[in-house]
Write a structure and sequence with these properties.
The protein is mostly helical. The chain has a single domain, classed as Arc Repressor Mutant, subunit A (Orthogonal Bundle). It has 5 helices and 3 strands; from the N terminus they run ααβααββα. It has a 3-stranded antiparallel beta sheet. A hairpin with a 4-residue loop joins strand 2 (about 85-90) and strand 3 (about 95). Helix 2 crosses helix 3, helix 2 (about 30-40) packs across helix 5 (about 105-115) and helix 3 (about 50-60) crosses helix 4 (about 65-80). The chain is globular.
Amino acid sequence: MSDQSSPHITLHTTESATKSVFTALADNYCRAVLRILSSHRLQPPIPIETLSKAVSDVEDTATEQAVRIKLTHSTLPRLDDDGFLEYDRHRGTVTPCEESVAPPESHESIIVHLTREQ
């Protein structure tokens, strides 16, 4: 009986992870943060000011201050909750997650493809 419920739990986890990936990729700021983190241009832990500057360079429609506000109040908490990164609000830093808490490998190629600069 427990064997029958196990696939349901696995399926739910996979659906949840898939939803997290696509929800994150639907947002311009999330895509920009993931692109910047995957490029390994910045050494972790990354100060919010540095990340805000990098994102504002990509998202040139907003000021650096507006980007910082959106990152700290919305984007980074969401990406932290979904396991893409670790956001330390007290220190004002971001660290990409290790393999153990990163999105599943099956989603990695989707993330790389969709966040690639065009």
